[in-house]
Amino acid sequence: MRIIVQNAKCQGHARCAALAPHIFKLDDAGYILPGNIEVAEGEGLTASRGARSCPERALKCDRDPAARVEPDVIPPRVRRA
Ligand code: SF4
């Protein structure tokens, strides 16, 4: 999983870092550091909580496509004679 960081939206609220300081690193002024964040295995839930805590929506979760749960394909109904 990866966190897409949109620095231009960051307003320095530091909520992300308050929830997961080891994942979301801030600069001295309290703004998130530039660059996307590769999330270590087992840290996905913490990272997504931190991303969702951002009131500016500056952080977006990008999950591994292989890990996405696709809805089951519902087969079309078969007409009975
Ligand atoms: S919560 Fe959002 S606005 Fe606040 S520091 Fe983190 S990324 Fe920036």
TrEMBL record:
Entry-linked Pfam families: Fer4_15
Gene3D superfamilies: 3.30.70.20
High-level lineage: Bacteria, Pseudomonadati, Pseudomonadota, Alphaproteobacteria, Hyphomicrobiales
Record's protein name: Ferredoxin
